[in-house]
Amino acid sequence: MSTRRSTIFGMTCLLLMAFLAGLTTSLVSGQQVLLVPAQYPDIQAAITASVSGDTILVSPGIYLGPIDYLGKNILVKGMNGPQVTTIDAAGQQASVVSMISGEGPGAVLDGFTVQGGLGTMVGYSFVGSMGGGINVENSSPIIQNCIVQGNTALTPGLFGSGSSLGGGIRCYTTSGLMPATPVIRDCVVRNNIGRNGGGIAIDRSNALIERCVIEQNESRYGAFGGGGVIVGGVLAGISTIRACSIRYNSATGTCGGLRILTASAMIDNNFICDNYAASHAGLSIETGLSYQTNVTISNCTISTNDSYHPSALVGGFTIGGSGATTQVTNSIIRGNFPTDVYADPNYPPASFTVDHSNIGGGWPGVGNIDADPKFVDPANLFGGAYRLDSGSPCIDAGTNGAVTAGAVDFEGDPRIFDRAVDLA
What we know:
Layout: H1 3-22, E1 33-36, H2 43-49, E2 55-58, E3 61-64, E4 67-68, E5 75-78, E6 85-92, E7 97-99, E8 108-110, E9 113-117, E10 120-121, E11 129-130, E12 134-137, E13 142-144, E14 147-149, E15 152-153, E16 169-172, E17 183-185, E18 188-190, E19 193-194, E20 200-203, E21 208-210, E22 213-215, E23 218-219, E24 229-242, E25 245-247, E26 250-254, E27 258-268, E28 271-273, E29 276-279, E30 283-286, E31 293-298, E32 301-303, E33 306-307, E34 317-320, E35 324-329, E36 332-334, E37 341-343, E38 351-355, E39 358-359, E40 416-417, E41 420-421
Parallel strand pairs: 1-2, 2-5, 3-6, 4-7, 5-8, 6-9, 7-12, 8-13, 9-14, 12-16, 13-17, 14-18, 15-19, 16-20, 17-21, 18-22, 19-23, 20-24, 21-24, 22-25, 23-26, 24-27, 25-28, 26-29, 27-30, 27-31, 28-32, 29-33, 30-34, 31-35, 32-36, 34-37, 35-38, 36-39
Antiparallel strand pairs: 10-11, 40-41
């Protein structure tokens, strides 16, 4: 090697060393970047060494969980994404990731596959395991760009089957505290099992769930159900579920897709399709007699959900409870078994209105229609295509007043195109 080449090589090495060393120095005063496994052998070791404001960058690999954020508002990021960076609890009776000490939106989990957790056993005996994959308590973190799969929350409490919640993710706020505001964004939540909330369980928290794929999760033997998602007990504020695909989920009891139970919610621009349950397979909204809740449903497609029990009355959308006020707009609800919409006459809602929607069998309201929506490739609905064909009666059939300025559909196109918004 010539002297000149040797000098260049030496300078390159020095620059690389300086760059790596610089990663552990301040990006902003007091904020450090910690590297796993280059500096710390595992993620928990880096978390323990960190302080709020730090960033932990994790190289590709499989890392043994569980991990706990310890109340620190830190970013823990898989540098190359969830396909190559995994946190695996390997079947331990624990949540793979815990955020249970008042973490705020500065606590971010980004770019991991989270798997193999059996949930955290809570301290009161009639309840079982919580949050098989991720357990959030009294905290408002951001969970983004993650795959949460192969976790369970089934372990019973000491006195019976219990109320285990959140096979994939559980977000909970203690009664009497202001609801926490966790965010779950751009995630895939799949193949998880929980007694209630097979994929995600939101309990007394005002969560934002957006741009997520929630599929092939199961509620097994749970009294509350919700194979894909259950939102319950939120009497202050509102949870938002936006631009999600909630499909192929199941429940041995009530509601395979999405269940809203004594909570207020905004459900916007979602596919709730191909879910399976003993009853109320698609979307179920229920509110106790002494509570007041408000749910808005807009630009949603609720289709091909199947309630298999012989006594089941509805497969698509169910509403009941005298405290429930619900508005459905710009949506398609049809093709469900055995029926599409059911308002429980024994527990009639305080208010239930439907407008500018395509409802199987028809429904009273301004702008409602009852017509074949002409989905693309209708013979392959279970495989996936719920986009509207060019001749669909749902095109330009909505009301623009229910659409947020700048809203886009699943393909990224403007919600309002040409004259008016499309249904679904």
